[in-house]
Write a structure and sequence with these properties.
single chain, 323 residues, mainly alpha, 16 helices
């Protein structure tokens, strides 16, 4: 119950920070100014957050020790859950929502204009993110003393608050924000549903070839990247499944940070929103916005929030299945 209450509190804080930033950004005094520092400050804060996250993970002996024991199962579950979610959301975008790769209605003037352009993609940020994750984990494992490691979670939380506020501020400065929300409509709620369907279907299929079996693979994937809650819910059921879920959800977040820009370019913006799962509403939200467009912040936050709220309900339901 405390976990669920904490989730709702975090959701409220995240939403309030984004809303506050959007409100301030929409004010004429800020919207009329260029604010060139905003994007650079947002990128710097994002990299600091990623390095600190990597340091905290690298300093965790349970994670480093479990890499060789349950790493293969966790890796397969992570990859299949991410692939399944992207395939389901890709079908949703093309055949139900009928949106183009940039998340705009297919056939619209903006969509046709985009199709006529050859977009140049800069992968510099992706490479910097990879280096930041690796550097952070190396520092946390080999250099950072325990006294400083204990403060990493507070730094991550404060950095996350700052990033969400900056994302909201940038959203508010964009013209047509309310129109983007109106265009998204109820279709935005279909994205997390598609993520659930794709994740469960493909991980169940993978479970046919893994020692864990389909049920346990689906249970491990039902954390949707939320590595702090999913293992706690699974521990009374099975310690091995709990450990697998823990490592899998860690991988899910790290892989998403690296792969979101690539997926946004190759597959589409909505697919990039689906990739991070629950972390689309917090840690990976700035990465999604940087790799896509401010319009996708609405999809990303909503998808992450719905998936986060589903975790405390899906995992107990799955492990209660009589097979």
């Amino acid at each position: 119950m405390q976990q669920i209450t904490g989730t709702l509190t975090s959701l409220a804080i995240y939403l309030a920070l984004v809303a506050l930033g959007a409100f301030l950004g929409s004010r004429p005094v800020l919207r009329s100014r260029p604010l060139p520092w905003l994007g650079r400050f947002q990128t710097a804060a994002l990299l600091l957050l990623i390095v600190t996250l990597g340091a905290e993970l690298g300093a965790n002996e349970e994670i480093t020790a479990s890499l060789g024991v349950i790493g293969l199962n966790a890796f397969v579950i992570t990859v299949t859950s991410m692939v399944g979610s992207m395939l389901a959301v890709h079908a949703l975008r093309r055949y139900i929502l009928k949106l183009d790769k940039q998340g705009r209605p297919a056939g619209s003037a903006q969509s046709q204009e985009q199709q006529g352009e050859k977009v140049k993609v800069d992968h510099t940020l992706t490479l910097i993110i990879v280096v930041a994750v690796v550097l952070g984990m190396a520092v946390g494992h080999f250099i950072l003393p325990d006294a400083l490691v204990s403060h990493c979670s507070q730094i991550i939380q404060l950095g996350l608050y700052l990033l969400l506020f900056l994302v909201g501020l940038d959203m508010g400065r964009q013209e047509g924000m309310l129109e983007n929300i109106r265009q998204a409509g109820l279709g935005v709620l279909l994205v997390p549903v598609a993520v659930m369907v794709g994740t469960f279907a493909v991980t169940a299929l993978a479970g046919l070839f893994l020692p864990l079996g389909p049920k346990d693979c689906v249970a491990a994937s039902a954390g949707f990247g939320w590595y702090s809650l999913a293992p706690t819910l699974l521990a009374p059921y099975s310690l091995s499944v709990s450990a697998t879920a823990f490592l899998s959800n860690i991988m899910h977040e790290l892989f998403s940070i690296v792969l979101v820009p690539i997926v946004a370019h190759r597959l589409g913006y909505i697919e990039a929103v689906a990739l991070p799962g629950a972390t689309a509403m917090d840690t990976v939200l700035p990465v999604v916005v940087s790799a896509t467009d401010q319009r996708m912040a609405i999809y990303s936050f909503t998808s992450g929030a719905v998936l986060s709220l589903s975790v405390p309900f899906f995992i107990p339901a799955i492990i209660a299945l009589p097979f």
